[in-house]
Specification:
The complex is a heterodimer of chains A (about 425) and B (about 270). Chain A has a single domain (about 30-429), classed as Porin, CATH 2.40.160.10. Chain A is about 10% helix and about 50% strand. Chain A has helices at about 1-25, 70-75, 140-145, 330-335, and strands at about 30-40, 50-65, 80-90, 95-110, 110-120, 155-160, 170-175, 190, 195-200, 205-210, 220-225, 230-240, 245-250, 255, 260-270, 275-285, 300-315, 315-330, 350-360, 365-375, 380-390, 395-405, 420-429. Chain B has one domain: Clam (outer membrane lipoprotein receptor (LolB), chain A). Helix content of chain B is about 20%, strand content about 45%. Chain B has 4 helices and 13 strands. Chain B has helices at about 1-45, 140-145, 260-265, 270, and strands spanning about 50-60, 65-75, 85-90, 100-105, 110-115, 120-125, 150-160, 165-175, 185-190, 195-200, 210-220, 225-235, 240-250. Chain B is elongated, with a radius of gyration of 22 Å. The chains are: A mainly beta (about 425), B alpha+beta (about 270). Chains A and B meet through strand 1, strand 15 and strand 17 of A and strand 6 of B.
Chain lengths: ~425, ~270
């Protein structure tokens, strides 16, 4: 019934859009409608629905408005932008409306931009790997086969940017903490450390978010400049882990988001003599509520290292590789305080990624494969994808999410029962 | 004795003719290079900066049409040398708002960035291969921003009239064989404007497979400018038509804007909307 209602709403929307498109040669409102279906391979039978983990229709609308009056505002080159999604999620059997972006952007001074409202932030050099990009992610969307756009979740924030030949700076202020969209078992099964096994819909962890208070405001900054053809940046962040890596109450299965500070740096530019682009990034995560590493209920501090290389070859072929290492600090304390049933960890977790992309027929068909492989965790994640741009409006994407793991508790191993194959059809306007 | 004289005369003649032909050849190479260098300046480097709105129609064998509309800003660093390019996509809808920043270098790989607004991502793009299609069209990146003069050797083949235009015909051959998909190209360069009117591409077997044709030249702010052109792929029976609108030179584009900020905050004074 709900599905029918949603489909009806979508059809009405499409009609309205197409009519407005006919009336004005260039509609001011753009967006897309998309249908997506992701049946699961056999998999485990733990989630709410077992034959698929993605079935939805989505309408995205976006519009920009640039007022020319009053004069004082116009001189600030203002821009208001809105982008919202209406999602008829037949997996969850809900109709959900989400503002993806809704912000005002002005330049009060020629060398300053201020962007206030709901927005998406990305910085750093990783490809699907994040060290200094401390902004919220939606991993559920990532693992079920939604568009890459949905890996990034929006934040309600203010971004203040200062530009200078010597060094430029971004300061992002996030008054209300937004966590990652965590995997909770309802749609994607995972390793529940309270149960000591892979859990699905029966997992009933309680998530406690930091209260919205001035002292809980998150601040992320980036200072960056180019040195020749190399882009360099240093980063600092104070806020909270985006993942609930703290346990508040074991018997009540209550988890929380501990305080976190991150300091890091990155560089990116042409690889000398090899051709292609090389990058490096480093970050120190300071787990502020467990600096000694003695508290087994809170994630330890850690170092993260990333090296990347990407290059292109004739005939629209691109290859990218990354090496990522995560080092747990105070590892001795971690070992000393671990209890039976705690998830075993290594001091160093290493991850290799490999991306290959090839375009065919003058970029009408894109074939790509992204692979994560961890030699230390003995797990892997494959993301093959074919995207066919049938014409300027229609796009068909098929792909799969395939996970392997030797152990039930590693990052990709725990998701092994969620393999899916997905198809998305999108009409853009 | 007679024999010796005869042999010396022959040897002398061979020597002279050798010099002579070599000299002619050198002259042709020289004038070919000059013609090409003038063409590159007239086509890719007119004035210090330029702004234009470019529409592309990509038509395949079945007659299906894809369209692209973009604004391009260009700033020369030095005449015939490094250049800065900024490209903002208006259409089609699914790539609207995407932008490119290209720092074109002579003698080394360009620096190229792509901005994806949906995820606020500034992506650095590897650019070892400039022969890839530009935005899915029959034009390559090199066709859009120019191929380095030093990459090819040139021969002036002669002069020919193309309609009302009197042209120099120049053959250009890549110095590193196999680096491009063509074995050589033939340019018809208008003697008055120095603009290319036609370019034939020959594949490695020597067969013509791609033809560029200028369809319209307008004089804008005193600068002869190609405003309409066609790239035909003979093998795949497809073509891309390119139209330039709202061209303005010396628009006041400065080098300090070609930074990351330009990608994240498109310059509305030039791209409109």
């Amino acid at each position: 019934m709900l599905g029918k209602v949603c489909s009806f709403i979508l059809i009405v929307f499409i009609l309205v859009i197409s009519i407005s498109g006919v009336l004005s040669a260039e509609p001011a409102v753009h967006g897309f409608i998309e249908g997506a279906y992701g049946p699961k391979f056999s998999g485990d039978k733990l989630t709410r629905k077992n034959d698929h983990n993605l079935l939805e229709q989505r309408l995205q609308l976006k519009a920009a408005y640039r007022p020319r009056k009053p004069a004082w505002l116009a001189s600030w080159n203002p821009e208001f932008f809105y982008k919202g999604d209406l999602l008829s999620d037949e997996y969850k059997e809900t109709l959900r409306y989400q503002i993806r972006e809704g912000y005002g952007l002005v330049s009060p001074l020629s060398w300053m931009d201020v962007k206030l409202g709901r927005q998406i932030f990305t910085w750093g050099t990783g490809d699907y790997l994040f060290i200094n990009d401390v902004f919220p992610k939606d991993y559920e969307s990532f693992f079920i086969g939604r568009d890459d756009e949905y890996l990034k979740a929006p934040s309600d924030a203010g971004k203040f940017s200062i530009y200078n030949q010597l060094v430029s700076m971004d300061v992002v202020v996030i008054p209300s903490f937004t966590p990652d969209v965590s995997i909770r078992g309802d749609r994607v099964s995972f390793y529940d450390n309270f149960l000591g096994r892979i859990a699905g819909k029966e997992a009933n962890r309680i998530f406690t978010e930091p209260a919205v208070q001035p002292k809980n405001t998150e601040i992320a900054t980036r200072l960056y400049r180019n040195l020749g053809e190399y882009e360099t940046a240093i980063y600092a962040f104070k806020g909270f882990f985006n993942q609930p890596v703290g346990i508040k109450n074991e018997s009540a299965k209550e988890v929380f988001y501990p305080k976190l500070a991150v300091f890091g740096a990155s560089i990116r530019g042409p690889a000398p003599s090899l051709g292609g682009i090389a990058s490096g990034e480093i970050g120190y995560s300071d787990s502020l509520q467990d600096r000694s590493g003695k508290n087994r209920l809170i994630e330890n501090s850690g170092m993260k290292y990333l090296l990347g290389y990407e290059r292109d070859f004739p005939k629209d072929l691109r290859i990218g590789i990354q090496y990522f290492a995560e080092q747990m600090l105070n590892f001795d304390e971690f070992k000393a305080h671990s209890q039976p049933g705690d998830i075993p960890r290594d001091e160093f977790r290493q991850l290799l990624t490999f991306r290959i992309t090839k375009f065919f027929w003058l970029q009408i068909l894109e074939a790509s494969l992204f692979t994560f492989y961890s030699p230390t965790d003995s797990d892997a994640y494959l993301r093959p994808r074919l995207a066919w741009q049938a014409n300027d409006r229609w796009k068909l994407t098929v792909g799969a999410n395939i996970l392997f793991g030797k152990h039930d508790w590693t990052e990709f191993g725990q998701l092994e029962g969620n393999d899916n194959f997905y198809t998305r059809i999108r009409y853009s306007f | 004795m007679k024999k010796i004289l005869f042999v010396s005369v022959i040897a002398f003649m061979l020597l002279v003719s050798g010099f002579w032909t070599k000299n002619i050849y050198a002259q042709d190479t020289q004038s070919g290079t000059t013609a090409m260098s003038e063409m590159l300046l007239a086509y890719y480097y007119p004035q210090t900066d330029a702004k234009s709105e470019i529409s592309m129609r990509i038509v395949n064998r079945q007659g299906q049409v894809r369209q692209r509309r973009l604004t391009m800003l260009r700033l020369n660093q030095t005449p015939g040398g490094d250049q800065l390019y900024y490209i903002y996509f208006h259409e089609p809808a699914d790539i609207k708002g995407m932008s490119f920043l290209v720092l074109k270098h002579i003698g080394r790989d360009d620096d190229r960035w792509l901005y994806l607004p949906a995820i606020d991502l500034v992506k650095r793009i590897a650019t070892s291969d400039k022969r890839t299609s530009f935005a899915g069209s029959d034009f390559t990146y090199e066709d859009v921003s120019g191929r380095a003069l030093d990459d090819d050797g040139y021969d002036l083949l002669g002069e020919e009239n193309l309609g009302p235009y009197s042209c120099l015909v120049v053959k250009s051959t890549p110095k590193r064989p196999g680096e491009a998909e063509f074995s050589y190209r033939k340019f018809w360069i208008d003697k008055t404007t120095r603009l290319p009117l036609k370019v034939e591409h020959y594949d490695l077997k020597g067969k013509i497979y791609k033809v560029y044709e200028t369809q319209e030249i307008q004089t804008i702010q005193g600068v002869p400018t190609i405003t309409k052109a066609l790239m035909k792929d003979l093998e795949n029976e497809r073509y891309t038509e390119i139209n330039m609108k709202e061209v303005s030179y010396n628009a006041g584009i400065t080098s300090d804007i070609f930074q990351e900020r330009l990608l994240r905050r498109p310059p509305r004074q030039w791209i409109g909307e």
